[in-house]
Every structure is written in C-alpha cells, then in structure tokens.
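Work package 3, deliverable 3.1, input record:
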Amino acid sequence: MGEMIFEASGLTKEFGAVTALRDVSLTLTGPSIIGLIGRNASGKTTLLRHIVGLQLPTRGRARTLGVATRSLQHEQLARIGMVPDAPTFIRWMSVREQLRYLSAFYPRWDMERQSSLGGLLDLDLHADISGLSTGSAQKLAIVAALCHHPDLILLDEPVSNLDPIARDQFLKLLLDIVQEDNATIVISSHVLHDIESTVDWIVCMNAGAVAADAALDDLKDQYAEWRVLARTRDLPDRFYDPFVVRQTVMEPRRARLVVRTADADLLAFQRTHDADVEVAPLNLQGLFPILVDNGRH
Amino acid sequence: MRRGALLNLLVRPLTIAFTAGVLPMAAILLFVAGSRRPAAVIGVSFVCAVLGAFIGEGMMEAARCSFAWTLPRYRRALLGEFVICGVAVSAVVVLIGAVASTTPPPTFLAAAVGFAAFSWVGALYLLPERFLLFPIAVLVLLASGPSAPAALLNAPLTTGTAALAVATLALWSAFSSRAFRWSALIGPRADGRSLWNGRPTMPWWPRLRRLRAGGRSQGASRARYVGTSVLRGVVSSYRPIRANEWFFALALSVWYVVAVGPNSLNSVPRRTFWSAWAIFMVFSLMNRTSYGSHGSASRATLPWSRRHHFSVAFARNLGGPLVILVVLSPAITAFALGNPELLGPAVRGIAVFAVFCPAFQWAMGPPTGGPWPDRGMTIILILAVSMAFLLALRLVVTGLPALVSSGVAQTVVLGLLIVGSQVLNWRRLKGYFANRDLVGGEL
Amino acid sequence: MLITIDVHSGVPAYRQLVDQIRLQVAGGRLQPGDEIPSTRALSAELGLNPMTISRAYALLEEEGILERRPGLPLVVRARSGATTATARGAQLSKALRPLASMARQLGISGKEAGDALRRLIDDHER
C-alpha cells in the first residue's frame, strides 16, 4: 500500500506566452483511482503528459514511479498504460494488426485480456483504422493501453466518445482491473457523474494550478448545503459569515448556502437568524464549482 | 463572400516570404538553364509546379475542413481563384524567363506548360488518387525526358494546346464534387507528410483486405521489440511503412537503373537530367528514411526511454541512407566500370549527399515526429537546403579537384566533412530528445 | 445483503454503506455470525471503488459491528442486548430528526406528530 506513483514539486510548464501548469506540487500514491477534474484548458492533459514523460517541465521537478520523468526507462514505461485524449494510430493497419504491432513492444502482453476486452467493448478486429469512428478509436486505445497489465493507468477523457452502455462497461472494467492488477488509475473526465462512482481521490485543477487534492469522501464532508427557512423575520441580503462559501437568497425568507462544515456553527446560525436549516450534502457535481473557485484564490 | 476564398488563405506573411524566395531562385534557375531551350521550358514548368504545390497545400488545408462541403459555392470560388493564380504565376515566370535566359522559349508554349504544371501539381493535393497519379506523372516525365524537349519545341502550338488540355482535365477532376466530398470526409491529415501518404481506400478501390479476411493466426505475441536493442528499435520503426510503398520505391529504382541510367550518360544534357533524377530519388528516399515519417505520432506512446528514442532515430537516420547506398552499389559499380573518368565526380557527389543527409532529414520534420508545424516553412526549408545542396554539389564536384589535387587529400577533406555533419547531427538529436516535448504543445 | 448506494446523493458512499449495514444489524436482518460479502464481490455488485468498501468495513470493524477472522470472510459480531437496543435507538433518532424539522416548519405540535406516527406504524402492522 502507498506506493509513490507520481510526485511533482513546483512543476511549471510554459508554452511560449501560455502557462499551462503553474507551480504544481502534488503527490499521488497508489493503488487508488484518482479523478482528475477541472474546466477546459485547466491543465489536465498537460499534467497527464508530464506524468508519462511526453512533456518536460519548464521549471520544477516531476518524478514518476521513483524516476525523474525525463529519464524514464523501459522498465517504468512498460508498467504504464496511457489512453491519450486524441489517440492516433497507423491508418492503413487493421485493428488487429495495430494491436499485434503494439504487443511486440511489451514483455507481458496478455492475449486473453485482449480478446476479452475487445469482446466486452465490442471492438471489430477486422476494421481498418482509417475508417474507425472516434468512439471506436477510443475503444481501441483503451484496449491497447490495458493489455500489458500496467501498474499505472492514465486515462485522458476516455469516456467522452463512448455510448452510455460502453461507458458503463468501461467503468466496471476499471474496477476489475484495480483489483486484479492492484493498479493505480488516474482518470481525467468532464463526466463527473460517471467518475463519482469509481474514484476515491480527487485532484481538481484550475487554470494550471491545483485547486483541490484530497479524498473524495473528505471533500464531501468538508462542505454542506444549507437550505435556510426564516421563521419570523426576513433574512439579510448577504451573509458575511466566513464559513459561507456561496449563497443565493431566493426570497426574503429563503436562502440556499454552501458552507464549510469545519467552521460552521449551525446552532448559532439558527439562533441568530431565527431560521430552520436543512442540511444536505453535496455531490461531486455540486462541489465542482466550489473547488474550482477555491483554486482561483 | 465569394471573392477571396483562396486569396484570403494566401494573404499572409508566409506567402510573401515564399514568393520572395522562389522568384529570385527562378530567375537564377532560368538564367542557368536558359542557354538550352528545352531546359528553359522545363525550368518554367518546375517553378510553376513549386508554386502550384505551395498554393495547392493551402487549398488542401481548407478543403479538408468540415465546413468545406457545406459552404455555398466554395468549390467554384476556389476553382476560379486557382485559375487566376495559375495564369498570374505562369505569366510572371514566363516573364522572368524571357528576361533572365539568353534564348527564351516560345511564350505560348512556356506559359501553357507552366500553367499545366501549376494546375497538375496543385490538383494533386485535392485528388484521392494522387498517390497513383503522382508516380505516373513522374514516370511520364522521365520516360519522355531525353527525347521530349526537342519534340516540344518543334510543335509549340500543338504541345501548348495539349498542355492546356491536360491542365483542364486536372482542374476538372480536382474541383469536382466527388473530390471535395472525399476531402471533407477524410479530414485533416493526422500524421501528414507528402503526396506519398495516400489514403489506402479510394471511393472505387476494392477492399482487398476483406478478401483475405481469414488472415494470419492470432497467436501469442512474441514481444519482438522489447528491450533496449537499437537494432530492434530501428526495425520496428520501419514497420508502419506500408509494404507497397517499399515495393514502389524499389520498382522505380530498378526501372531507372535498367532503362534510363545507361542511356542517359551519353550526352551532357542527359547527364544533367541524370543528376536531377538522382536528386529526386534523394528526396523520396529521405522522406522514407527520416525518423519523423510514418507512424511517428503513435511512436510517442511506446514504452521507450528518451535515450532509446534518440538511439533509434540516430541509427535510422544514419543507417537508412547507408542501406540505400549499399543497395545502389551494383549500379554505381557498373557505372564506374563503364565510365572511369566519371568515377571521381560521382564519388564526390555521393560524399556531398552524405554531408547534406542530416540536413534533409531535419528539413522533413522534427525527429520527434510529424511535419514541422508550419508547413509553409517546411517547403521553404526544403527548398533552401536543396539549393544549398545543389550549390555544394557544383562546388565540390567540379571545384574541389582545383583546390586540392591529390585524391587522398580530397578523401580526407570529404571524410572530415561527413564525420563533422554526423557529429553535429548527433549532438542536435541528443539535445532534442533530452529536452523537448514528444508531443504537441496544446493543453 | 440488500444494499443500495446512491453515489450521487452527496453522502459519501462509504458512510451510506456503514449506515445500511448498521441498520440491518440493528434490525435483525443480519444476525450475529452471518458472513459479509468480500470487498471484491461487493465492489463488483455495487459498482463501487473497492477502497470505499474496505473503508466502510474497517469502520464497522472499529465500531465492533463486524469481526475479522484470519483467512475467513468478515462476520457480524455477536453483541449484547443492551448494545443492540442502543443501536436501534440511535437509528430511529436519526430517521426522526428530519421529521421533527418538517413538523416544526408545518407548525404541527409534538402530540399531533406522535399520533400520526403511531397511526402509521399500527396501520402497517395490520
């Protein structure tokens, strides 16, 4: 338990005038399923590419599986499987030929897993790659990344192009693989609904910086939604309590607040405003804007 | 807005730089070639072809976008402006020819041939069948090479009209709705390189692979390319090149060696022609052997350390041309035995090529794969390197014996140059793989 | 073991699992000595991250509801009658709290609410 999968300290990446990653310091340990979330262009893809060594930091350090990313050797790379956001293949090959070609580079390619994954995801082995739809290309990328029993699996928006049934199958597949191979999975996705059921750790990026880096359950415990119903008098226009993170005053006597549970004093609040408060937890969809906002400050 | 469909694409600094570069070169070329009339016509068509390639490239990028099919009257607008560009280009080049060369070719003939070359090459960028048509065009050009120029001049009107007919045919098929539909469907080139990288399926090409759907047995993987062996890495990097491309290159070489080679040596124009053909072979083979071609995008995801990527790249860039040299050695030996007085120049020529090899390979694209991001810059770079190569060729082949008389000394000088260029290449490649991103820079 | 987890409710999945197992043990649906499905089996059945499941199991073990035997699956631990009664009481108060809040909002008195609850329980039993 607790193997050091990836650590970054002060990792910064600039592409000319654009800063893709801003002073990122984080440590990922496994085995675990880590959800990498964030708005578009927040640096998720760049971070994943840094983990596997495809891109090198402008400043700062990054180490994967104990080795600096610029010196990753075959031993480490053969333990990593990656599904990139726009997978490219050799266009004239058929799916089967492409898999055969890739299998020649890995010492422990599992043909049985290849056929079972291919069957599960409904991948046509005889299709030409040039004629594949984006969804099928993504499925091929998934199969290609998982057949060699990697210890670290990096998935960049792997389900964005899959139909709902394939998506479900894929997520169940991930859980199986975590158990079978004791693997660490880093999955970046916009579909919070899907990853919420599978991940146990969340890394949230915003504008190139890390906005949140905690267990999903802990994050859910950190915030709560309060539905406030005033009894006798109107509520103020704005709540200035420090634990109130977001607020919507809907009617003079109704408000919806998002609070930080650690410093929130429910009883005092109820007494001060003479109101009834219904406390509800927030799911990942509700937490997301708050995490992103936190990252901005 | 109908006007400006193509012109809007061309109005950018790159076009100005390109034209500013090409036109003086055209002047020089036509001046040098102008002393022999057939060569002047060929020179005109070559320059027009280069400009046609440049404009065709820009057009192709637009035609491949998803909006190209649905934009109203887009096709017609592109065609119209392409023709206008063609007329302008051939007029300008013929004018340069008239001014620069001592015996200018007949105007109508030169303009027609120039326009035909422009249209044909530009059209190739839009046609799905280009990977068949381009080699055929080259073969036709070569087959007619030694004898055609005289025929061209004897009947300027006929030849000119024929050229215009060819141009019309090219334009008609390139700007047809069929070609545009295909372009819009195929989308932008992922790993794109040259005209050689045709799509395996064309609308009417039968799916031969389906016929042998039984195929090879599944079998357990043999993990052939595992490990740090550079040789295996190099072998694996050739795998993405299709078998029929190798076959075609081989066939072309054999055809040349057998049919054209010996015959071209008898007269000076043919020898010049022979050099031009050799240069063309160089380009094609450089394209094949440079590390950045074919399957390079998917190569980034292989479990290779950066050092291994570098070793394979260097080995391949060095080994590829060596292998070509070895393969061509029978032809060279036969040539040397038959023409002992040309041995020296031939060896010097090959040495210059060896010195410039890395430069050609770098010009094709970054070693990490794919073409250089700015495709216009790629064309300029290739042209610049080619011009430098031709100049060096001229200097070394004819000039070196004048400076350094002993054969041994010449060998030493050339050997040092070759080693020097490889050392530079080694260092540059090493730095590149150690410090650069292996994939693109977008988020 | 009949468990339903709503991953999107906002309540951490591990806590939902803990609560439901606690409820089943308190209500007698899980008897002392009953075997609990392995992490792997439950993860496959519910589609949950196995870490979530093991975290829930660890918590339940700490609380003394589940017992780990070397080499064998987890079982429900035998508990004294007093402990069971306290557990049941705790479950009920938790369910009643939102009810109480609603009653207050609607302006219903404790006696009225109590009567309504009694009617519902008695009706259901009949």
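The CA atoms of residues 114 and 183 of chain A lie 17 Å apart.
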